[in-house]
Amino acid sequence: MTVPPRLRRALVRMRRDIAFIAAGMTLHLIPLLLHFWVVVLLLGTVLDSDPDTPVVLALTLPLLLVAGWGLTGPQRWRFRALCGVELPRLRFREVKRQFAYNLLIGPLLVVLELLLLALLLAAVAAALVLVWVWLVPWEWRRDHGGYVVPAGYLTVAGLLALAAVPPLAGGLVRLEILVGRAVLGVSRSDELARRVEDLTESRAGAVDAADAERRRIERDLHDGAQQRLVSLALNLGLAKATLTDLPLEAQQVIDAAHREAKDAIEELNNLVRGLHPAVLDELGLDAALSGLAARAPLPVRLRVELPADLPQRTAPAVEAVAYFVVSEALTNVAKHAREATRAEVTVTRLGEILRVVIADDGMGGADPSGGSGLKGLAQRVRSVDGTFRMSSPVGGPTMMSVELPCPM
To answer: Is 302 helix (H, G, I), strand (E, B) or coil?
Structure first.
């Protein structure tokens, strides 16, 4: 006989609900029995002076603690395998919620689960009363007449109870899912905190990837295009020095090409240093900033205070941000700071904070919201969770302060 699809789905759903409730009853009974045992021991301690009772009680309490935390894993499996509900793996600091579900809510749910399973068993037994009677020997049935009407009533009641079991089981499953998600799930604040952590990690990965890509481009330019330009400039210089018998026009062309090649090498050197200076990786932030200060078009006083007892160098991404902040700031001072005669750069490491301060004695008036350069600096600082502050009143001086996190 072919079972209708709707009935088949209802039977599958009922079987799943009953399996979910039966598995929950098994897990919920454990803390309930432990609670009952603790109550018995406490009553024994009050009513009886047996010296062994406190010892047994002391050994039972750790079992409650283990059950309160250890049953969370089986509960997560029950929700996932039988209902397809994924409960997140809670952290150890959220153990209070696990205790609340396993030790308090579970013993309350098991009462409903036991009642439902008892109803199911009673309904099955009542619906099969006529079958049980039919299996009784004929002599008994002949001697005990009048059983048909009560047996019929019990059968009808059993069938009605069986019809009520599926919606009751479905309601109990939905209740347990609702309670499980509310207690063992992730709260709104925890979910937001985890999303912030995930976004922070992904952003850190993007920053590291971008920094690694800049390093690769710097190496490719240094080992490829830069070397070719140097070779070209050398050849043009050699031709200029040796081919003196060429016509004047040809010598002028070679001389102009030689100058263009040297200018291209200089521009490429500046580009390479702007991407990622090799000295930053080889000698560290102090040496890289010293090179910037030496190349600046105005006097720069540099002070770098990095504790010598640090277990390791500052993270490469943070060093790169500090370098480019100083580089861009000194470039802005040279180009835009009116009447600036000197600049000062101070870099200090205070615990897990790298502080960079750039100041000049110009006329001030710089507005971080008015130009893309300062906005780009602020965005680069924020890419590593740093803070960017700037003070530039009209008449000067201008001071830029950057704080970059340096976790140990």
So the answer is: strand
* Residue 167 confidence (pLDDT): 92
Report the candidate in 325, 319, 326 with the shortest Cα–Cα distance to residue 207: 319
User: How far apart are the C-alpha atoms of 39 and 74, rounded to whole Å?
Assistant: 26
Region for 84 from its dihedrals, namely left if φ exceeds 0, alpha if ψ lies in -120 to 50, beta otherwise: left
Distance CA(195)–CA(101), nearest Å, equals 25
DSSP state of 4: P
Model pLDDT for residues 20-64, shown as the tens digit of each residue: 999 999 999 988 888 888 877 777 666 665 566 666 667 777 777
Q: How is residue 311 annotated by DSSP?
A: S
CB within 8 Å of 366: residues ≥ 6 apart? 332, 336, 337, 374, 390, 392, 398
| 327-376: pLDDT as tens digits | 888 888 877 777 788 889 999 988 888 899 998 888 877 776 665 567 77
pLDDT at 122: 92
Residue 89 in tokens: 């793996």
Provide the token pair at 216: 């690769």
Give the global pTM. 0.51
Tell me, rounded to whole angstroms, the distance of Cα 10 from its chain centroid: 40
Q: What φ, ψ does residue 389 adopt, rounded to 5°? A: -130, 150
Whole-number mean pLDDT of the chain?
79
Contact 303, 346 (CB under 8 A): yes
pLDDT at 55: 67
Taking only the tens place, the pLDDT of each residue in 215-257 is 666 666 666 666 777 777 777 777 777 877 777 777 777 777 7
Q: How far apart are CA 24 and CA 16, in angstroms?
A: 12
